[in-house]
Amino acid sequence: MTENSRATPSFAVHIPDAELETEPLDPDQIVSGTPVVTGKVLWESADGKQLRGIWQITPGVVTDVEANELFVVVSGRATIEIEGGGLIEVGPGDAAVLREGDRTTWTVHETLRKAYHISL
After folding, report:
1. What single DSSP character describes residue 44?
2. Which parts of the chain register pLDDT below 50?
3. pTM recorded for the entire structure
4. DSSP characters for 56-105?
C-alpha cells in the first residue's frame, strides 16, 4: 500500500451529480464549436503517475494526444477518431481504453461525462 493510499480513506462519489471545476482547453485543440471542459481528480498516487477522476466536455470537436487511460462513459455520446486506428463510438455504460501517444479527434455529440483512470 502506498503512503498516499493510506492517507486517503475509501469513498464513493455519485458521478452524475459530482461538482466539477473548469479546466483549460488549449484553443489550438479546438477544431469546431465552443467546447468547455470540466473535471475533478478524485485520487492521485503519491508519485503523481496514477490519476482517477471525472471529466466532462460539452459538444464540439477537439484534438488530443492521449495518456494510457481506461474510462467509462456515464452520460453523453462521442465519436473518437484515432489517427491510423479507426473510430470508437462511446455512450453511457461504454468502457474504452486509449493508448499513450494516440492522436485523437473527439467529436462530442452530447455533453460527455466519464470516470477515468490514467497512468502517466
Report:
1. E
2. 1-3
3. 0.91
4. EE-SEEEEEE--EEEEEEEEEEEEEEETTTEEEEE-TT-EEEE-TT-EEE
